[in-house]
Amino acid sequence: ELEEGPEAGPDFLGEFGGLGDEEASGPPTVKASVHPASGAPGSVVELRFDFTVQDPWHLYSLKSPNGQALKLELTLPPGAEAVGAPTEPTPKAEKDEFLGDVSSHYSDFRVTQKVRLGPKAGPQSIKASLSWQACDPEQCLPGNFAVTITPTAGASGAAASGSGVAVVSSGGGPQTPNTAVTNTTVEPEPT
Questions:
Q1: For 162, left (φ over 0), alpha (ψ -120 to 50), or beta?
Q2: How far apart are CA 2 and CA 71, in angstroms?
Q3: 49 and which of 59, 111, 161, 179 could share a cystine (Cβ 3.0–4.6 Å)?
Q4: Which of 51, 120, 126 has the alpha carbon at shortest distance from 82?
C-alpha cells in the first residue's frame, strides 16, 4: 500500500507527475508496484518501477557511464534484503557531444528489483527512492520519486532485529549497477 493515500492498493502504489506540465510531451513519469502483494516470510517479491518516456525526452539508464544515471535506493525492514541488482531493458548506447558515452531510454520501460521479505509476519514497509536526469533537445531536468511499498508476509516467522538499507546505483560502471548494504538510514525525498 502507499502511505500517501488511504485508497491506494498494492498494484498501484504511486505516481509522480515529473517535472512540469502533464502534457503529452512532458518529462518522464513513474509508477510503482509490488508483485505479488503478499507472500510467506522470507519469500521474494518484485518491486516494479514503470517509466513513461515520451518523444523527444530520454532518461539515462542505470548503467550509463556518463550523464546522471538512474539511481534506486531502498530502505528495507529488519531481515529483508535486496536480491541481486536492479534490472532494466537494454538501453540505447550512444555518444553525446558533451558527455561522451551514455546509455539512455527513449521510450517506456520498467526497472525491477527483487527483495526477499524479512522473517517476521505482517506488513513490511519498503521505502524506495529513485533519481534520474531526463533530457530533451532543449534542456535536462532532474527527476525524483519516493514511495513506501508495503507487501505483507504471511503467518509465522521469527522476529528479526536491526535494519538494513540497500543502496542500488549506477556507480559500478557501464555493465553492473553498484549494490551496497549498510546500516545507514536513508530517508526518501518528499514527493
A1: left
A2: 21
A3: 111
A4: 126
Rg of the chain in Å (alpha carbons) = 17
Instruction: Compute how many other C-beta atoms are within 10 angstroms of the C-beta atom of residue 125.
Output: 14
Closest of 36, 32, 43 to residue 127, by C-alpha: 32
pLDDT in tens, 141-164: 999 999 999 999 984 332 222 233
* Measured distance CA(79)–CA(116) in Å, rounded: 9
DSSP designation for 163:
-
Instruction: Dump pLDDT digits (tens) for 18-41.
Output: 444 444 578 999 999 999 999 999
- pTM, two decimals, is 0.70
